[in-house]
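[Automated response] Your request has been received and processed.

Submitted sequence:
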Amino acid sequence: MAARVSPLFAARCLWEGLELALSPQCRAYVIVPIIVNVILLSAGGIAAYLGVKHWIFGWTDTLPGFLAWLGWILAAIAALLIIFLCFWFFSAVATIIASPFYGLLADRAEMAICGTQSEDMGFAGVVRDIPRCLKRELKKQLFFLPRALLCLLVTLVPVLNVISPVPWFLLGSWMGCLQYADYAYDNHKVPFAVMRSDLASSKMATFAFGAAVALLTAVPVLNLVIPPAAVCAGTRYYVELRRGGAAVAALQGRA
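Generated structure:
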């Protein structure tokens, strides 16, 4: 049974996660995920920009002059769709590639938080668990994608699109917590459905955690550091949910 967590604690987790990610215990496990994010997101962003730019100008040049304005509107909508799909694809690929390293980072973060770790989580254990980690990442993407497409549909429907920022923000906030708290759950081989149930037991806290992650991820440069910091913060959140904060309190008492 998951413990209840306050929204204030959940929002504060990210700052503590950043400190933990930069600590000597965890610093070495942050470098590879950052490099993967830089390479893939940079390549994806450049490819998406060049492809969309070429396609838009090629398409609008074929329209009659009196329809040029309509062409630009349709092209803008198509460009947003393509950029969104490219960003999602490259972000998903970067996350999937980095997931074994994030699992190891979550394990080190848990050790720093409460002095315990999951079983078989040395580097050799991570290598053995790569297929399981990739399968878990696929589950998260399959959870996200249909909900994202529904939000996109709301965005494209006239009048209804006025409220589209609301479902996007709610989905981004929920995924911001689910994505990064799951590494600690997965290390302990807690089923995906159980993890979702735990997060739902403290809905406001889960949204607060995820909203902080989503907003900070939108800040250029800072968004390179936020994913590993969110992994550490998600590990702290996991400890609080699964152990009621007892292990954290014990650690703070020893400090």
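Summary generated for your ticket: The chain has ten helices and no strands. Residues 124 and 130 are 10 Å apart (CA to CA).
If you did not submit this request, please reply to this message.
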